């Protein structure tokens, strides 16, 4: 936005370096006064901030459970999944902590389903835990390496997503989710 000012959109001479700070402050003040906000807030930003602070240093208990227990899995499809919660887009945004991964979710879901028509009949392969019917895992192919697979795990109740984690390097964080987790939650819950 600042580069819309003609003087700031060009190479600046060295002789004006002492005044750049003043010029930049004036340009930013004009942008703030007469232009729309660069970041638009949405309805539940305070809930997201509270969640960020509450879960910032918590370990992922689902990952701990997966590391400590030997679980068996059965192949199934999303159409046979019983009791998975239906969420609003705001509830999903609260889980993903923002919109970046949510924007990636459709593309990841299409790749996983091998279809661009993501209707109720789309084949979304997943696995259900044999000992806990409310724990599922979904295998995602890496976008960066054909040899790499990531498993996304989701623990749920009929009301909400209780916990989730992923084998992706940043997939165990408690604040926000990786794109694999976002894709699975978006496809199954929305």
State the main characteristics.
5 strands, alpha+beta, about 190 residues, about 15% strand, five-stranded antiparallel sheet
Blueprint of the fold:
Blueprint: H1 17-34, H2 45-55, H3 61-68, E1 73-77, H4 89-96, H5 100-113, E2 125-129, E3 135-141, E4 149-156, E5 161-166, H6 179-189
Antiparallel strand pairs: 1-2, 2-3, 3-4, 4-5
Please tell me about this protein's structure:
With 190 residues, the protein is α+β, with helices and mostly antiparallel strands. It has two domains: 2-34, no CATH class; 45-189, no CATH class. It contains six helices and five strands, in the order αααβααββββα. It has helices spanning 17-34, 45-55, 61-68, 89-96, 100-113, 179-189, and strands at 73-77, 125-129, 135-141, 149-156, 161-166. A hairpin with a 4-residue loop joins β4 (149-156) and β5 (161-166). α4 runs antiparallel to α6 (179-189) and α5 crosses α6 (179-189). The two termini are 35 Å apart.
